[in-house]
Each structure stands twice: as C-alpha cells, then as structure tokens.
Amino acid sequence: MEALLSIHDVMPETLDRVEALLSMVPVSARPGTVLLVVPGRDWRPGDLARLGCWQSRGLELAGHGWFHRAERVRGWYHRCHAHLISRQAAEHLSQPRAALRALLADNHRWFARHRLAPPELYVPPAWALGELRGEDLAESPFTYVETASGLLHTATGVRRRLPLVGFEADTPLRALGLRFWNRCNRGFTSERHPLRIALHPGDAELHLAGDLSQTLAPLTRCIDYRTLF
After folding, report:
1. Is 78 left (phi over 0), alpha (psi -120 to 50) or beta?
2. Other residues' Cβ atoms within 10 Å of the Cβ of residue 161
3. CA-CA distance, 116 to 35, in Å (whole number)?
C-alpha cells in the first residue's frame, strides 16, 4: 500500500514518541514521511540535531504553527472546534489575519536559522487556517498547504482533495467517531486520490492503537505530495 504519511506535533517533548511511531512504520516506507515541526517550543541543540538526522535519513520536515496552542478561544466556531476536534490546539483560530501572515513567515525562517532544509509544506495545527485567505497563502514562503480536505498549491490555487485517516482518540466517544470517519475515508481512496495517514505522538497509547498498527503494517512507500500536482 502507498500513502502520504505525516507525524504531527513534533516538539522537543514529543521526540521520543515520534521515534517510537517511526519504528512502527515498515523500513521501506519511512523515507518520505513528513514530520510536522512546531518551532516555538524550547528547542535545544540536541533536539535540533535529531531533526537534522531525520532529514538526512530521507524524512521531510514541514511547518506546523508556532506554539501549537490557542492563546484564547474566539467566537462560537472556535468553541465548537475546540470541543469537538482540536481541544486547545487550533492556534490559527485564536489570531487575526495579520498575525497569521507573520506566523507563516517566522515559521519558515526558523528552519534555515537552525541549518535545516526549509520546508515547502505548511500544515496549520488541527488543519484550521483561521482568517488566512488564498492570497495570504500565495504570498507566503510555502509552496503547499494541507487542510482537512486535502492539499493546496499556493501559487496556482489548485487543490487536491485527499481522504484522511487519523487515530488521536483520547476518549471512547472520539474513538467511535474516528473509526467511522476512517472507514468512510478509506472508501474514497483511489489511484487519483491516495490516502493520507496522519499520526500524533500519543496515538500508540490511545484507544485506536490497534487500528494504527493494522494501517501501518501494509505500507510499502510514502507518496511524495509534490507528484500530485
């Protein structure tokens, strides 16, 4: 099986769990795995060296917010999103448009400042873009942006809708909802619409750990999202 594989919430405090998740991925499929890095955390030289090592092994780094935590909950949509999906992770929903434009620029600069290959892909925390518009993304330093529905090529505005499965089920109710979501999305998978597998650092200890193992076991290759455009 081929799929687009990403690991979210890569921070200094999650690196060991990220490594454990990578060990669950078949060796042949590990190159091309995308690691979603949160720059605003307390990164130490050893942590940065670990990111550089992963890059040298063929893994790709992508931008993922700044702190990965909403400063506050703004409005009814954010309240619903936090309750049903993101908890406090939807950082973009708590900030105005100008601040988000600056966040994208700061995120991209952080990688080069630490001698890491600058990312082409940006994924907003919890896939929530907030007040950002198409023109903001086109003017950003990122070539691709991922949302819950799929991938966007920022310069052209071309979108590719892609099915998505995830396993971050910290309650039995969320496990039930995610299992249904995953089943539906697998049904939309085709050669033109390959599956996205989104992992989070704690997934192997949560309610869908068995589903996670079954999903990763047949993976043979990570698809390069660039080829979709």
Report:
1. alpha
2. 12
3. 13
What is the rounded distance in angstroms from the CA atom of residue 207 to the CA atom of residue 209? 6
Contact residues for 149 (Cβ-Cβ < 8 A; gap 6+)? 159, 161, 162
Query: Which is it for the CA torsion 167, 31, 12, 117, positive or negative?
Result: negative
Return the pLDDT at 84.
45
Q: What is the DSSP letter of 204?
A: G
Three-state SS for 191?
Answer: coil
Residue appearing with tokens 């994208």: 104
The neighbouring-strand residues paired with 142 are none
Q: How many residues does the chain have?
A: 229
For 25, the 3-state DSSP assignment is coil
Query: Nearest 5°: CA angle at 199, between 198 and 203?
Result: 140
Predicted confidence (pLDDT) per residue in 164-205, tens digit:
999 999 999 999 999 999 999 999 999 899 999 999 999 999
Alpha helices (H) in 57-95, listed in sequence order: 75-81
Q: Can you give the C-alpha Rg of the chain in angstroms?
A: 17
pTM metric for this prediction: 0.92
CA distance 131 to 129: 6
SS (H, E, C) 123-168: CCHHHCCCCCCHHHHHHCCCCEEEECCEEEECCCCCEEECCEEECC
Phi-psi label, residue 10: left if phi above 0, alpha if psi -120 to 50, beta otherwise:
beta
Q: Name residue 122's beta-bridge partners.
A: 63, 145
